Amino acid sequence: MKLTRKTVVNAQGPLGRLGAEKFKGANAGKITYNIARNIGVTAPIVEAYSKAQNALIEKYRRKKKAVKEGEEDVWVIPDENQRAFQEESEALLAEEEEINNVFLVTLPAPTEENPLQINGLDRYLLDWMIKVEGEE
Question: How far apart are CA 57 and CA 44, in angstroms?
């Protein structure tokens, strides 16, 4: 499966929240395992992206001297570097990654006793690996 880095990076928060859920029912163990496995499959991509993003920050940042006495200097990306930084950041996120061994996570259909454990935005960000029983 090919996904953009942006898709994988944006999925990490929702994937972590879903991984923290306590699922109920006959397939609870399978659901938890598949989520954990998908976290493991995507983690190296996120780590590599983070290193590359940090390298971009190092490339474009500049030290801004403190204005007032007692304040500390800060690191900023100056206006003249903003466009290049933004373009390179977007290009980095747009690159596709081949991801193998992603498990489909099938969540149980929501009931009163067992409501759906994922909100709409998280479900959207994880649509490449999540489905809900009874939905196509």
Answer: 20
**CA dist., res. 25 & res. 63, Å (int):** 55
Question: Could you give the C-alpha distances from 25 to 22, 73, 82, 103, 112, in angstroms and in order?
Answer: 10, 55, 50, 19, 14
**Residues 51 and 71 sit within 8 Å (Cβ to Cβ):** no
Amino acid at 38: N
pLDDT one-digit tens code per residue, 44-96: 999 999 999 999 999 999 888 777 777 788 888 989 999 999 999 999 999 99
Cα–Cα distance measured from residue 78 to residue 60, given in angstroms and rounded to the nearest whole number: 8
Question: What are the CB-based long-range contacts (under 8 Å, 24+) for 47-50?
Answer: 49/5, 49/8, 49/9, 49/92, 49/93
The CA distance from 15 to 136, in Å, is: 21
Q: Check residue 43 and give its pLDDT.
A: 95
Share of residues in the chain with pLDDT > 70 (%):
99
Residue 41 has pLDDT above 80, yes or no: yes
